[in-house]
Write a structure and sequence with these properties.
heterodimer, A: 248 residues, alpha/beta, six-stranded mixed sheet, four-stranded antiparallel sheet, 8 helices, 29% strand, B: 437 residues, 2 domains, eleven-stranded mixed sheet, ten-stranded mixed sheet, globular
């Protein structure tokens, strides 16, 4: 279970999160919606431990373990994964080498056996096939020259390979066509199970047709202002956020 | 005449006076004349100072000009161990050729000690070096004792040759000034892998000068691994002359020594000659590394490519100076120069000075320079995927260096280079970067 309690965070001294409280039990997928500037991306970065996002109050725990005290890499080892809204390019770093290095760093930190090149390639190829990714994407530098859709699929490949306990998808659907959207949804749905939970950040109802969330939360001015079932997303799609902000 | 103001320069001049009659070639008038001219030039200028444009960013005062160095001892270093190699190899210990450690049997070209070959080198030795312009070449011209002379005959594919320079532990803080001559005949080829090393904590001055002639249609791949001991001083000057349709490919890893200068002068003198000059400088706390290139486009339709990358850690300093001179006759020149620095510490400093002088009107010449730190977003991305901070750093530094290394055509040089980079890494206490899948 991921538990966020009264989370306050600032960026450059400016308060962005103003008391977020949220519980995502294991096995559940929750969605966060909200207008631009409501703090959605900040929440995702705070959960993953990005520098420059300062937590001033509150707590975040994953299965009872304090995440905020951990470095980003320790959070990954603990099972946290962030799918980036704008995937980062790494010129000069081959995709396959990057993926294997990440996978083995986590396995090593967990005291698990490392994967040799053969085992890794077998696993990566299988995952890529499901994601409809050509194998040559393993040889290219990470995200360099990738189309928007290819970058997002590469994020999903990382998600599938690293198999986290808790994943945050930060507007992974933005700029995707319907086929790519379905591949993203398939990846998340394939991981669903009693040990997995996810927070799907999105502007649109569209993605939530394919990843049906257990709960939907609305973030506004750095706070959860409303929560409900999947039907809430549909309601927001029809009426927008204006009324909610007034209520908050 | 300006008086010599440094104790170091005075000591070297005094040594020359004392050794003049005993240095190799002392009985050959042309050698004596060359040495005297070099001595005259050195007496006039002394060690380079920061008042000289070419030495503005590299200060020799403490490490060299006011230091004292001794003679290399002969006969010591018998216990020197060299790692086995798949290639033929010429080994120099404290600047002197060691036939017993070298393996030059069966090569398809001539490779011999300069001290031995000296009588036959009139007109060749000193043909390219300019003691009147470069004080370190003057010091070398005055005191050289040995070196490697390589001759690859016309049409011969010479394969790979290693040139190993080893400094030994010595309380005398030896200075040695080898002069290496490399000549490729028409259509010949050679891969020369040069490596300079020395023990930790040993103070010495290694001041090699190369004179390289690449005849029409020939190709020389010249890989240089400078991994001197951290109290050593390495001041090297390369002169290369490249004829029509010939190629000179220089890659330098500048990673060792307390103070290192990699100075390269290349002249493209025949149509369609090519020069590739790439390099990586890895500079750690307390080190100073300088790469200074000067490229003369003196014939039409020539091309040149330069990519230099410098990584600086701790309190360190890096220098890149790159001059491209396109003569009026050099129409349709294609020149490119890029130098980039990555600062890993706030106390590191890089000085970069590109300089283009173009006198022809139909040329394509571009240059660029960047200085940056590790990208915070890339660091966060790697760490968010479970990669520890130091390993993430290592990955990004490797990635930064990749472009310069990928430009190296020769497989053997690339492999030697990868070993060199990994060695630097270990010494910095950094883990290996990327795992190869």
């Amino acid at each position: 279970m991921l538990k966020i309690e009264n989370l306050h965070a600032t960026v450059d001294g400016k308060p962005i999160l103003n008391g977020v409280t949220l519980e995502i039990p294991s096995g559940e997928v929750h969605a966060i919606m909200g207008p631009n500037g409501s703090g959605k991306s900040t929440l995702s970065y705070v959960l993953a431990g990005r520098e420059g996002y300062e937590v001033t109050e509150g707590s975040v725990t994953l299965n009872g373990v304090d995440l905020l005290a951990m470095e980003p890499e320790e959070r990954a080892v603990a099972g946290v994964f962030l799918a980036f809204q704008a995937p980062v390019e790494l010129p000069g770093v081959g995709n396959a080498n990057f993926l294997r290095t990440a996978l083995n760093a986590i396995r090593r930190a967990r005291g698990e056996a490392e994967m040799d090149a053969m085992q890794f390639l077998k696993l990566a190829r299988a995952r890529m096939k499901v994601l409809n990714m050509p194998e040559e994407m393993l040889k290219r530098p990470v995200n360099v020259g990738f189309s928007g859709g290819e970058k997002k699929r590469n994020e999903m490949l990382q998600l599938a390979l690293l198999a986290p306990k808790f994943a945050v998808l930060d507007e992974t659907d933005s700029g995707l066509d319907i086929d790519a959207l379905k591949l993203v949804a398939d990846t998340v749905n394939s991981l669903r199970g009693p040990e997995f939970s996810a927070l799907v950040i999105t502007h649109y109802q569209r993605l939530l047709n394919h990843i049906v969330p257990d709960r939907v939360h609305v973030l506004s001015a750095g706070r959860v202002v409303r929560s409900g079932g999947p039907e809430l997303a549909k309601e927001l799609e029809a009426s927008g956020y204006a009324g909610l902000q007034a209520a908050a | 005449m300006t008086a010599v103001t440094t104790t170091g320069a005075a000591a070297f001049l005094g040594r020359y006076e004392g050794l003049r009659a005993r240095l190799p070639g002392a009985r050959l008038p042309w050698v004596q004349a060359l040495r005297d001219q070099a001595a005259e030039a050195f007496r006039r200028v002394g060690f380079p100072t920061r008042r000289m444009e070419a030495w503005k960013y590299t200060d020799l005062t403490r490490a060299v000009s006011n230091s004292s160095f001794g003679e290399p001892l002969t006969g010591v270093g018998d216990t020197v161990e060299v790692r086995p190699s798949a290639h033929p190899r010429a080994v120099f210990v404290d600047g002197r050729f060691r036939a017993d450690l070298s393996t030059l049997d069966g090569v398809a070209f001539t490779a011999e000690s300069l001290a031995d070959a000296l009588p036959g080198l009139e007109g060749r030795l000193g043909a390219l070096a300019r003691p009147e312009n470069e004080p370190m070449a003057a010091l070398n011209g005055m005191l050289f004792e040995d070196g490697l002379v390589v001759d690859v005959p016309q049409g011969v594919a010479g394969g790979a040759l290693e040139l190993l320079s080893i400094a030994t532990e010595s309380e005398r803080a030896p200075a040695f000034h080898p002069r290496h001559l490399v000549r490729l005949g028409e259509g010949a080829s050679l891969t020369l892998i040069e490596s300079a090393t020395g023990p930790l904590g040993a103070r010495y001055l290694h001041n090699p000068v190369f004179e390289i002639e690449v005849a029409a249609g020939a190709r020389l791949n010249h890989g240089r691994l400078q991994q001197e001991g951290f109290d050593g001083v390495f001041l090297s000057t390369v002169y290369a002359r490249v004829a029509s349709d010939a190629a000179y490919d220089n890659f330098t890893l500048n990673a060792g020594a307390k103070l290192a200068r990699n100075e390269i002068h290349v002249a493209l003198v025949g149509p369609k000659a090519e020069a590739h000059m790439n390099g990586v400088q890895m500079v750690a706390d307390g080190q100073h590394a300088d790469t200074t290139t000067s490229l003369d486009h003196a014939a039409p339709d020539c091309s040149s490519r330069q990519t230099y990358k410098t990584v600086l850690a701790g309190r360190s300093r890096g220098v890149f100076q790159g001059k491209i001179h396109v003569h009026q006759v050099a129409q349709r020149t294609d020149g490119y120069q890029m130098n980039q620095a990555l600062l890993l510490s706030p106390e590191a400093e890089i000085d970069s000075k590109p300089q283009l002088e173009i006198y022809a009107d139909d040329v394509k010449c571009s240059h660029g320079a960047t200085v940056g730190e590790l990208d915070a977003e890339q660091m966060f991305f790697l760490r968010s995927r479970g990669i520890p901070e130091t390993q993430a750093k290592a990955i990004l530094v490797e990635a930064f260096l990749t472009e310069a290394v990928e430009g190296v055509a020769d497989e053997a040089i690339r492999a030697a280079l990868a070993r060199g980079v990994a060695g630097w890494w270990r010494r910095q206490g950094l883990p290996a970067g990327i795992e190869v899948a």
